[in-house]
């Protein structure tokens, strides 16, 4: 089956990136060899395309990367044409309903536009997070901002001891035009119900004219499941969550700290 692979897509956090948020030499060399074999390589992330491009440069894999799926499948960047496609952004009326429902909750609303992160409140921690991914945080009047702009997603950021308030408030929020999910102990996100990493993978197939069975995908978390279950071969790292391991074709014996991606590619594809 590996001999049929023509495209490889990889999640970033806790999959390709180690716990120091870096890419190992083993992983980087394997990615470089994919290009030499004519196999397309790209990454998928919840971050915007623009900031992800900067990080790829920092990690020294930009020249080996053919595409970026940003915003969890809501945007597609082709490195050759340098064009970005965007799918199903949240429009003003939906954003306003989210804003008004959660405005009394102790959380920070975050909206992404390119590598700019608009926030309803700025703290040292949120600024540090933006800096870590080479994004610029801008304090904004978000209620006015969402009257004229549309966004790929909305993030509700809260300290972990405050997140239960967000989740409790979510129980009474029903809207067919958006879908909410917990990303980590500090972030709850909304996007269009059609957007997920599996949707992004289908758009990728259409863009490059590649059959789904010729795609190899790597991931670790619940939001990777639509991608891993759709790809021809879905591989998870050893540190993946149990629900991910249950649906994957292959469970790597290596974690993200043990060059799981590079080891799999070297042993099966290169």
From TrEMBL:
This is HAD family phosphatase. InterPro entries: Cof, HAD-like_sf, HAD-SF_hydro_IIB, HAD_sf. GO terms for cellular component: cytosol. Pfam families: Hydrolase_3. PANTHER family: HAD SUPERFAMILY HYDROLASE-LIKE, TYPE 3 (PTHR10000:SF8), PHOSPHOSERINE PHOSPHATASE (PTHR10000). GO terms for molecular function: magnesium ion binding; phosphatase activity. It comes from the Bacteria.
